[in-house]
Amino acid sequence: MSFYLKARKLDISSGGQPWVIVLQEQEARSFGVVMGDLIEIRWGRQRAMVVAYYTRRKVQRGEIGFFREIWKYRHVATGEAVSIKVLSRPPSIEAIRKKLLGQPITYPEMHAIISDIVQHKLGSVEITYFVASSFIKDFSDEELFYMTKAMADTGETLKMPSKIVADKHSVGGVAGNRTTMVVIPIVASYGVCIPKTSSRAITSPAGTADTMEVLAPVSLPIKKVEQIIKDIKCCLIWGGSFRLAPADDYIIRVQHSMAIEPFDKMVVSIMSKKIAMGVTHLVVDLPYGPTVKIQSRRDALEVKRKFQYLARRFGIKIEVVLTETKEPVGRGIGPSLEARDVLRVLQQKDYRPADLANKSIKLSGKLLELVGKAKKGKGHMLAAEALASGRAWKKMQEIIKAQGGKPNIDSEDLTMAAIRHRFHAPHAGRVVSIDDKMVDQIARTLGAPHEKLAGIYINKRIGQKVRKGERLFTLYAQNKDRIDMALAALRKKWIFDIKKI
Question: Is residue 254 situated within a structural domain?
């Protein structure tokens, strides 16, 4: 079916073939034209095959914009009626359609999707369909490999100064859990090359990048990052600050708007960036539990299998650590509060969160064993020594300084300016559960992760006895309005379940 628009000559060149026309975006979508479509245009006695692109400003509704190559070689009058007929979809659109129908796709098809995302040929609607396709039918192992490879191949890679490049990554979904910011300086203090790129929060109150940003800049150019790695063999930066697996960042934006993160996409997102970073040895923290991202052990084992499969295909030595999780890790939830917990552990403060310290030691030990710095079963002792001796804190100071932060920051300086509201136990008893999802919801209501001071500090843990009136948790915010919104949410659902004894 054809439709008609008025011609408009644009003084823009595509640089050659193929010839290009542009349509007003909303109007194009209403006609069923997508970016990259091959279309036939006719005016008078003339005919041409062109590729369609969207624009929001160059043409108005009812117009078709001709790039210079067309009107220079084919006469067209401004305002002339032009018929438009879609001939074929771009390969990426056809591949997404196949996946939505539950059919397998090949590497060239997967590469076409990822490449078109990177080149902005697919809009948010098309990317949303691609993300949603994994809910219709899981990606096969081979498709996961294709997607991981395509995402790594369509972005930049970093040059590493070492044959062994280590990394630790958590799949997320647990409030707090800033083990990465403790593990990296512990492992780096033993001379291991361990450059860390992290994402920002998707569905949580803070990601590692959001939290590290409290201490130092995390958006750095690739040349600066390579120099930091060369100088101190480690870093803690936001992966989106340069083009490591760049398609992932566009997909994350779609996931963020829908507040979802498919397991297959999560595994690919993590592994594609490890490949781009040249990682050779990887420990993955994979928590599961009733109120976190991965809720069942069965799902956790399947995600573990996929990590192991991709690691084997790309030649990465990996250990995936499953941990049943029923409550937040650490005490602070939100960028500044989580950064304070990290510094309390690294600075060995008396009131440091023991669970965050212990989990970080366990994961660091696993990684030190994996890279050959410790014998099997002995890595945790090296990790604990790095914390107790201050070596890990010294290394973190090097990282903070190299990235442009203040290395002498004290943990207690981070939340001084926050407005606080304390909650107390309504009756005596024992804490039997903490709703991790509700913790996330309240922390985000308070303004996290964009407002760095916002969040919740958990004063009591599961299994602990509480007296009536004893403090359970504290809200932190940058203004009173945020506190009031959180209070309204807490009147509908409580975070703690306290059983009377």
Answer: no
